[in-house]
Design brief:
Blueprint: E1 2-5, E2 11-14, H1 16-28, H2 35-41, H3 43-66, H4 68-83, E3 118-122, E4 134-138, H5 139-146, H6 150-169
Antiparallel strand pairs: 1-2, 3-4
């Protein structure tokens, strides 16, 4: 059974059919036009444009999916817009090094494991994605750096070194 939560924090169960019916009704009555409504209103215009430009649209789509720099820039712009931060990066500013600057043993390449995938990082998280504030590193390094402070990273390194020495002395 589907649930609908009300503003008051009270929830009650509806069967899926009733839930979908109410959801569709709420969209119809919404003062904000949905993409679906906009598409239905201009369906002929969109269809005609697509038919006339089908090859160009498909080629652009294929190129955007294959060029990883474009994917990184698109993601950066999306996050910046969502957070209301500035982003003055252009495609030429996205330079993917061969190896991760943090972990030089990691070769940066788009893979299924994601640890070796290039990731954009803001050196100062309070600033937006600017040329001076953005660097490309491995996803692994970015994840480790994400929530840790400098003191925590130093303490972790010291602990790891101590454990390694103890293990070697056994």
């Amino acid at each position: 059974m589907a649930r609908i939560k009300r503003d008051l924090g009270v929830s009650f169960k509806l069967d899926p059919v009733e839930y979908r019916k109410r959801y569709k009704e709420s969209i119809k009555n919404s003062p904000v036009p949905s993409c679906d409504k906009k598409y239905k209103q201009n369906k002929e215009v969109y269809s005609k444009y697509y038919q006339e430009n089908k090859d160009r649209i498909n080629e652009n789509s294929r190129q955007r999916r294959s060029d990883f720099k474009v994917q990184i820039l698109d993601a950066i712009k999306h996050r910046s817009k969502k957070r209301g931060e500035i982003c003055n990066l252009e495609l030429k500013d996205i330079i993917i090094p061969e190896y991760c600057p943090v972990f030089p043993w990691i070769k940066l390449e788009k893979t299924e494991t994601k640890n070796t995938t290039p990731s954009a990082d803001r050196m100062d998280s309070s600033l937006g994605y600017t040329k001076e504030n953005t660097t490309i590193m491995s996803t692994r390094a970015n994840i480790l750096k994400r929530d840790a402070t400098l003191e925590e990273l130093i303490a972790l390194g010291k602990w790891a070194e101590k454990v390694r020495r103890e293990y070697e002395n056994k």
